[in-house]
Structures are given as C-alpha cells and as structure tokens.
Design goal:
- The chain is of the alpha/beta class.
- It contains 17 helices and nine strands.
- The chain has helices spanning 2-10, 12-20, 35-45, 62-70, 83-88, 90-96, 115-125, 141-145, 156-169, 184-196, 219-227, 242-252, 261-265, 278-291, 296-306, 313-320, 325-336; strands at 50-53, 75-77, 81-82, 106-111, 131-136, 174-179, 201-205, 233-236, 256-259.
- An eight-stranded parallel beta barrel has the order 1-2-4-5-6-7-8-9, surrounded by seven helices.
- The protein is globular.
C-alpha cells in the first residue's frame, strides 16, 4: 500500500485536473440547518478538533454516550441501526433509539443500502439528532452479505444516491463512515465524489474490510483522503490515548479522531487519563441507575472493560463470573469503597 500512496501523491495534480473537467466543476455544496445542527457544523468547520465516540453495536447506547460526553467527547454516535427494521417496527424504534437533551450532539448511524429506506428513517429521527451517518465500513460477514456496511464500497453509486436524496429531501447533515480500499484510487474517487454531492464530513477507518483489528492502521492513507478533499475528515482506528489522538492529528491533518475500543476501556481517554478514573466509573453507575437503557449483561460488560486495568487475572475471573446487578454492585462497593 505504501507504493500506492507514493504513486497517488505523485499523480494528485492529474486527479484534480480530471475532476475540474467534470460536471458542475469542483463546488462543494453548502447548506444551512436549524440551530442545533448548524452549531455542530459551525464547530466542525471552525477548525475545532473533534473528539468522537464511534458507533458500537450494543455498547454506544444512551448511558454510555452520556458518560463519554461528560468525560471529553464532543460527538457521539448511536450503534448502527438497521433502517428497514427501524422503519417497520415501533418496537425496534423504541429499542434502538433512546435519547434525552443531554445526549447532544448525536449522530444516528444507519445500516442501509437504498435511498428510500434511508430517507424514511431519517425523517423519523431528524428532530432528535444533529446528523445522519451511513455505515459504509462494517466488515462483518452478515452485514456485507446483506449489502450493507463495507459492501457499499463495491457499489458507490448507492452511496451517492442516498446522500443526494437526503440532501434533497431531509434538512439534516449527512456523513459517511468508510474504510480505505485496497486500491486507494477508489477511496480517493469515493471521497471526492461524495464531497461534490454534499456529504458534510467523512470518517475514514485506516484498514480495509479484510484486515483484522490487529493490523496496523494506515494513517498515510487517511492523510491522502484528507489532502484530496476540502470537507472535514475524521480518522478512525487505534485511538487509545489523548497523545495518540494528537499524534494522528499531526500525521494526517484531520479534523477529529474517533475511538471505539479505546473509549470502552477508558471513557475518560480524551481528558488525558491513562485508565478509567474511579469517578468516571461512579458516574457510569449513577447514569445507569437513573436512566437504565442497558441490558444487565451489557452493563456488566462495560464495567469489565472499565475495570480491566484495576484487576489482576484472578480478580478479572471473579468479576466476570458475576451474574446479577446486586452482585456487581456489592463487589464494586467492597473493592472500591464507593
């Protein structure tokens, strides 16, 4: 991939010359939104470096989003919501989309592969969030088999159509979350075309859909995307500390960084903490007690992640075997003297 990057850097002028011959020239779309949505766009476009919680299936629900906002996140995402089920089922809407006024700014991410489903879902949430995101990067097999997630990178016209329809029909910022592709020319073309049809920002995960999470993130590829568009670009992949966030900013010039696993183990990482402070864990328990919104198994799993650095091997095993909320709370009160 390094050779591809060098070749693309050398040919960047040719790419721009080609784009300048296309319809409508190179004129990014500028839109004005209502106050809360516009405030977010103004912050992003002003140059403020955004610290973002990634969409995470099962985990990025209301209590966790509220927690990370208290501890340094500027933007949070819902888990990927399947648009078709969301449109058809009131029960799915009640389960998948729980918010409050403390949950802003919030981006709702949809798993979707056609414009009508996306427009319908966006209409249902547009008054309760500050943006819509299309998942174009999930590499899970079942997601790709159904034509969602990273499968959309093989069918970019579907992405363009969805973005166009949102811009034409729903007054809300629309973003896409992608992965780099094996041929980086395809990634650059996708980003530039998405910009021309009015994407508000792009989040780029620096691995291909075939790469495991242990594979190093390609920050040079993310930088290449940033260098080839004028719209905001966020970097995703291996953000575990505030120092790493700043290093990624220096390497790539991106407008923000998005963290998933890093925030699960340390929701306070964007405040500069090396591990989850006890006060943060207290906050999480208090938020859960007040708002609920998590299955007890997920509540337990969150605490497993947050307490990971505090436990030795035997303590991890002991805590992981707990099966009731009362047992979990008794353990934490005994161990950490809440």
């Amino acid at each position: 991939m390094e050779d591809q990057i060098n070749n693309l850097l050398n040919s960047q002028i040719n790419i721009e010359e080609h784009d300048n011959n296309e319809d409508d020239q190179y004129k990014p779309i500028v839109k004005i939104y209502d106050s809360d949505k516009q405030n977010l766009m103004d912050r992003i476009n002003s140059g403020e470096f955004m610290k973002i919680q990634a969409p995470m299936v099962r985990f990025s629900r209301l209590p966790f989003r509220m927690l990370v906002k208290r501890w340094g996140c500027d933007i949070t995402y819902t888990p990927m919501i399947m648009a078709a089920e969301f449109n058809r089922s009131e029960a799915a809407r009640d389960s998948d989309f729980t918010i409050n006024k403390l949950d802003e700014p919030l981006i709702v991410q949809f798993g979707v592969n056609n414009a009508e489903e996306l427009v319908s879902a966006a209409e249902k949430v547009k008054d309760y969030c500050q943006g819509i995101d299309i998942n174009c990067g999930c590499p899970q097999r079942w997601v790709m088999k159904e034509g969602f997630g990273a499968n959309l990178l093989l069918h970019p016209e579907r992405i363009y159509d969805m973005v166009k329809q949102i811009n034409n029909r729903v007054p809300i910022p629309i973003s896409i979350k992608i992965r780099v592709q094996s041929d980086l020319k395809d990634t650059i073309e996708l980003a530039r075309r998405a910009e021309r049809i009015g994407v508000s920002w792009i989040t780029v995960h620096g691995r291909t859909s075939a790469m495991k999470s242990s594979h190093p993130v390609d920050y040079d590829a993310i930088k290449l995307v940033k260098d080839n568009v004028k719209l905001p670009v966020f970097a995703n992949g291996d953000v575990f500390t505030l120092d790493q966030s700043n290093e990624i900013r220096e390497k790539t010039g991106v407008n923000g960084v998005m963290s998933a696993r890093g925030l699960l183990t340390n929701p306070a990482l964007f405040q500069g903490y090396d591990k989850t402070p006890i006060e943060c864990i207290k906050d999480f328990i208090n938020i859960y007690s007040e708002y609920g919104g998590l299955h007890p198994v997920i509540f337990h799993r969150h605490l497993m992640y947050m307490l990971y650095e505090y436990h030795n091997k035997n303590e991890k095993s002991e805590f992981n075997k707990l099966s009731t909320i009362s047992g979990i709370m008794d353990y934490i009160n005994d161990k950490f003297l809440f």
